[in-house]
Write a structure and sequence with these properties.
The complex is a heterodimer of chains A (161) and B (190).
Chain A (H helix, E strand, L loop, with lengths): L1 H18 L3 H24 L5 H8 L5 H23 L18 H17 L3 H9 L4 H22 L1
Helix pairs in contact in A: 2-6, 6-7
Chain B lengths: L1 H5 L4 H19 L7 H10 L16 H19 L11 H8 L23 H21 L3 H10 L3 H26 L4
The chains are: A mainly alpha (161), B mainly alpha (190).
């Protein structure tokens, strides 16, 4: 009788161990996103997407650079999504790999225009703010704080509705 | 090799790298590229959630997004040290002439020091651009449900109409700022 309980306990412990990912995979689950971010950040800085000048050139139609970056990024992204769909690759949890669905409302236009203004002022999108901070431009931290304040304002304004 | 890599990378290298982030994040954990939502998660982690419905969710479930933002900083460090450029940024001649009238000249930095440095934050011009611009970025991206990454890259890649509308709106806002408002801000001498 006692040994039976012990056996059961041992089996439970073993099962518990299986649901809990091993240490190495837990570390990987964290590092993989940091590495993906670093890949993106290097591309933003070295590709001059963080450049205030390139942004000004884009909005003044004085250079092809940013248009080239955005259209080639979208082309590669779209092609990859097509390949993922055709190949039927599933996530490790068995779910279909699918990009988040975006919604269309008044905010898409008004919010979009407000962001566009901030983008032209600072020459930076949210990704650039982080990458530039890392690249040694601490003044960008002030803009990040501004962006957090703007987010907070939005959260407060949304509550009022 | 390092010498070539430390020069600015052409659009046909940087663009595809950025595009590949979309499948990369999907394959790594079925995540959708997006950066501006990290602002929301940071706020949610700090403010008392009960008081604001917009911030009352378990931000820990979105931890990956904050790790991704941390990676962006790390990538910036790498690009700004080992791959740091040693030549001044070359810009369009018309733009150079235009900016010179406001006392702005390009250096090796991607952003003009006359506008975005710790010293310039003490001027009205610098403060307005850094803080005002930040506020617009934070409020605007959350209202629009995404930024250039989430809408213009991920959304357009997956052929979503809302993202096309958002991207056009980004451009309308940017063009308005650049041509109708920015000249007055740049002309501020205090």
């Amino acid at each position: 009788m006692i040994s039976e309980v012990k056996l059961l306990q041992r089996r439970e412990a073993r099962e518990l161990d299986q649901t809990r990912p091993p240490a190495l995979s837990r570390v990987w689950n964290i590092t993989k996103y940091i590495l993906a971010g670093a890949w993106f950040g290097v591309a933003l800085v070295k590709g001059e997407i963080v450049s205030w000048y390139r942004l000004q050139e884009m909005f003044r139609f004085e250079s092809f650079h940013m248009y080239g970056v955005i259209s080639s990024a979208v082309a590669v992204g779209a092609l990859s999504l097509l390949l993922i769909r055709k190949s039927g690759i599933k996530g490790s949890d068995g779910n279909v790999l699918q990009p988040k669905r975006k919604i269309l409302n008044r905010g898409t236009v008004i919010g979009g225009m407000l962001f566009g203004m901030g983008w032209a002022m600072t020459g930076a999108c949210p990704g650039s703010l982080y990458a530039l901070t890392g690249a040694g431009f601490p003044a960008m931290l002030v803009t990040i704080i501004g962006a957090l304040a703007g987010t907070l304002l939005y959260g407060i304004a949304k509550k009022g509705k | 090799m390092l010498e070539i890599l430390s020069k600015p990378w052409p659009w046909y290298v940087a663009g595809p790298m950025i595009g590949l982030t979309v499948p990369l994040l999907l394959l790594l954990g079925n995540k959708s590229l997006g950066v501006s939502s990290s602002f929301r998660h940071i706020c949610a982690a700090v403010v008392p959630a009960r008081r604001f419905t917009y911030f009352s969710y378990n931000w820990r479930n979105e931890q990956w997004n904050l790790l991704f933002a941390g990676g962006l900083i790390l990538g910036g460090v790498f690009a700004g040290t080992i791959l740091a450029p040693n030549e001044d940024v070359v810009i369009n001649a018309d733009l150079q002439q235009y900016l010179a009238t406001f006392g702005i000249t390009p250096t090796t930095a991607p952003i003009p020091e006359a506008l975005f440095s710790m010293d310039s934050l003490l001027t009205l011009r610098g403060l307005l651009l850094a803080v005002g611009g930040g506020l617009l970025i934070g409020f605007g991206t959350r209202y629009a449900g995404g930024c250039t990454s989430g809408h213009s890259i991920l959304g357009l890649s997956s052929m979503q109409i809302p993202s096309l509308v958002a991207t056009c709106s980004f451009l309308v806002g940017g063009l308005t700022m650049t041509h109708a408002i920015l000249p007055f801000i740049l002309a501020l001498e205090i």
